[in-house]
Amino acid sequence: MELSDLKDFLDEKYLQYNKKDFILTDPIQIPHSFSQREDIEIAGFLASTIAWGNRKMIIGNAKKMMEIMGNQPYDFVMNFNIDKINDIPPFVHRTFQNQDFLYCVASLQNIYKNHGGLKNVFEGAFQKYGNLRETLIEFRKIFFECDFPLRTEKHIANVAKGAAGKRLCMYTMWMARKDKSGVHFGIWNIPNSALMLPLDTHTATVGRKLGLITRKQDDWKTVEEITANLRLLDPDDPVKYDFSLFGLGIDHF
Questions:
Q1: Which of 26, 214, 229, 245 has the maximum number of C-beta atoms within 10 A of its C-beta?
Q2: What radius of gyration do the chain's Cα atoms show?
Q3: Helices 166-176 and 132-143: crossing angle, nearest 10°?
């Protein structure tokens, strides 16, 4: 397919899928339940962290997390007391166990109390390094500043070791991407042009069928490859095509 034809095709699919009703069937509905920035950031981070597997299960369990937090995630994080964890109902999502959830809350408390919050961490790292890879690496270092269970490491992708970082890329896209449709929040000052495609089974499958990916692995180099090719179609907003590729993957592949 010629580049201009591919752009026309994916632009058409972008307009088809990038609509407010997308929120109703996607985990992004969890942060959309809130209006305060800090609530949005924390709800979005936790929902994206468990975003693998069946979407209905993801959404259902993310709602349970919010209920455990009294539907006030920022207040819950800031008042979290490790000595009172027995008073908190246990939470499990597949291999994401209760101790993983509790560490996430403790780490978020450290980020908000000692690093100015998630927005400050991500924006500061991006201003320092100028690219998303180094931004995610810096975030991960800060996230694991506190004493943590070794098992929790697997839930926060290490792109420094080549992980595709699908959930971290997706979370950053949710928070930073600016778009008139209202699906993404655009509350962080990281430009659309710097965002990286969240690579999952659907986007990878469609990406290969459309010739946007030549690599066989689903790793960070593949994220760089497909995002670079999408920048040829729209250098200012390459990850808008996540709607196109994901939608095609769900409906046709």
A1: 245
A2: 18
A3: 100
Contact 61, 50 (CB under 8 A): yes
Q: What angle do CA 172, 181, 55 make, to 5 degrees?
A: 60
CB 46 within 8 A of CB 36: no
Q: What is the pLDDT of residues 49-61, one digit of tens each?
A: 999 988 999 999 9
What are the residues facing 96 on neighbouring strands?
Answer: 93
**Residue 97: which residues within 8 A CB-CB, separation 6 or more?**
151
What is the CA angle 108-111-114, rounded to 5? 140
- What's the CA gap between 96 and 88, in Å, rounded? 16
Task: Yes or no: say if 241 and 234 are a contact pair by the CB < 8 Å rule.
Answer: yes
CA distance 155 to 17: 28
Helix (H) or strand (E) holding 238, with range, is: none
Helices (H) and strands (E) in the chain, counts: 11, 0
- What is the distance between the alpha carbons of residues 181 and 14, in angstroms, rounded to a whole number? 11
Residue appearing with tokens 């996540």? 242
**CA-wise closest residue to 75 among 103, 48, 30, 108:** 108
- The answer to whether 42 touches 108, Cβ cutoff 8 Å, is yes
10 alpha carbon, distance to own chain's centre: 22
| Beta-carbon count within 10 A of 12 CB | 11
